[in-house]
Amino acid sequence: MSIATEPMRPPHACADREELAALAEDTIAKGSKSFAAAARLFSPEMRRSAMMLYAWCRHCDDVIDGQQLGFSRRPVAEMREPMQRLGELAIDTLRALDGDTALHPAYLSVADVAHRHGLPRALLIEHLEGYRMDVDETRYETIEETLGYCYRVAGVVGVMMAIIMGVKRESVLDRASDLGIAFQLTNIARDIVDDARAGRVYVPAEWLSEAGLEASDLANPARKGDVAKLAARLVDHAEPYYRSAFLGLSGLPARSAWAVATAHGVYRQIGLDVKAKGPQSFGTRVSTSRAAKLRHLFLGAVKVVVTRVPLPLKRPQTLWTRRRRRPADAPRSPGDRRIRP
């Protein structure tokens, strides 16, 4: 992946950062309680930036899904065609990066964060590529293709969060990508049924074939035992990415590492619970209790202590790895369609 390094013009002075941060915090409180719990551990400045980046991600997700904070549906009459919505997201994001302030606060927030921390705009566009894959109702033949989707919708967010934390080492950014991929594999495992009902299938076709399933079977209660096995397989596939991300904690400042370690534990627990519940989790949304979050808050601190000494272990070469750089004139592979605002 080629990361553009062109300078970004800062948002105009009329965009009040404290107000944007307050709006972002309210968004997180309503849209992601797990992230909100972990974000409390960040330093005040890091917390503001993390929340403002998340506000943009949440806004993009809601626009594409026609939802509000991931829940209630917007009236159909109010929604444009999905591809039009995606194009507007890309256009307005780039407009905000270039200094336009007559936009939704989510765009102003991400522009502020990008300018303040030097986020390459190519990473933002890469994230929007994940939404394009949803809009196109892309189906995935192999687990490697599914992992490519996971990177775009979550791994690249991990990379951006690490950059906000001051990380510059590519090896640590790879571990941040691994954590985002692990999170997304957990989400896919938890939401197989709901996604299938919405016409989205992220389980690779190879796995479906091996299980004797069609995509339409994923929402069929009569096949919930087989669907549970697929969910367990996804949870197992996430494990090496969680392990890799754990080793990356040593490359983060201690306070940020505590927040990331807590999120690491909470999300991983969701996957383990999905696997443990088996067929009983069919069509339900597994989440962690307050007590479990507090337990992982404590365990997160332990993880930070353990990883304060840099570990010499190399990242396994078998893990899916983001492309770090690609020459600007390199040919694109067939089907590599980019968003062109």
UniProtKB/TrEMBL annotation:
Residues 318-341 are annotated as: Disordered. It holds the Pfam family SQS_PSY. Keywords: Transferase. InterPro entries: Isoprenoid_synthase_dom_sf, Squ/phyt_synthse, Squalene/phytoene_synthase_CS, Trans_IPPS_bact-type, Trans_IPPS_HH. This is Phytoene/squalene synthase family protein.
